[in-house]
């Protein structure tokens, strides 16, 4: 089972690095620019949950929307399909635990975290089909994009890939932190599978990329090292600008 294999790899890495319970990789992206396609395909209409098929989704490369310097952004933009775990993760980042059930985000969810004299604004936009069309409008204020994927739902990887690639094409300089969430679910795919399924090796355009496995369980996120590492990394990225 791929999930189990990945878990083994992650486990080995952990032992090696002194017990970090997630895998974290920084990847230097290719600097080659991809030619925009002449006729980008229309965004596929989302099928009902039970009908999602793992089909090959073509990357739609469009003219970049964002051209201003990256330092213009002040927010951490948190996106990902509905149910991926964005709100749960943000709650953990902010409070160190998750005590209550979360509801689907109907619009946006703003969370602020203070770390010494740094105040970091996280902005989640809900991942339902209707809200996804607004995602790109928030890119201009983003300094970092956190994209959350439900690692236990491979049938939706092509849809997640489609949206992620659209965002990255619209803002070629945007640093990306990909969170492979729900690692606790049996059969969840590991970060290597996610990397391949979302075609991250082909992102190009000099995106700074990190991939981290995370899991959020009610009342337990404070002990999940992946969540801690993700939080620390994002704070570091925001502090270093
Ligand atoms: N097992 C498990 N469940 C999780 C995890 N993260 C989130 N969930 C559950 O997944 C469901 C959806 O979580 P949300 O945080 O609301 O997801 P979201 O990405 O904010 O979804 P939208 O707001 O609809 O876009 C909830 O029932 C969470 O409890 C995880 O790591 N493991
Ligand atoms: Mg939400």
What key phrases describe this protein's structure?
single chain, alpha/beta, 27% helix, globular, disordered N terminus, binds guanosine-5'-triphosphate, binds magnesium ion
Query: What name does the CATH topology carry?
Result: Rossmann fold
Q: Which percent bin holds the helix content? A: 25-40%
- Note the total helix count: 6
Strand order across the largest sheet: 1-7-6-5-2-4-3
Query: What is the assigned CATH homologous superfamily?
Result: P-loop containing nucleotide triphosphate hydrolases
H/E element order:
HEEHEEHEHEHEH
CATH architecture: 3-Layer(aba) Sandwich
Strand proportion, as a percent range, falls in 15-25%
State the name of the first-level CATH class: Alpha Beta
Question: What global shape is seen?
Answer: globular
Decide which structural class fits the backbone: alpha/beta
Oligomer: single chain
Rounded radius of gyration (Å): 17 Å
State the end-to-end distance.
Answer: 41 Å
Task: Report the mean per-residue pLDDT as an integer.
Answer: 75
Please describe what this structure looks like.
This protein has one domain: P-loop containing nucleotide triphosphate hydrolases (Rossmann fold, 3-Layer(aba) Sandwich). The chain has a seven-stranded mixed β-sheet, sandwiched between helices. The chain is 27% helix and 19% strand. With 241 residues, the protein is α/β, with parallel strands linked by helices. It has six helices and seven strands; from the N terminus they run H-E-E-H-E-E-H-E-H-E-H-E-H. It is globular. The chain starts with a helix and ends with a helix. The structure holds guanosine-5'-triphosphate (GTP) and magnesium ion.
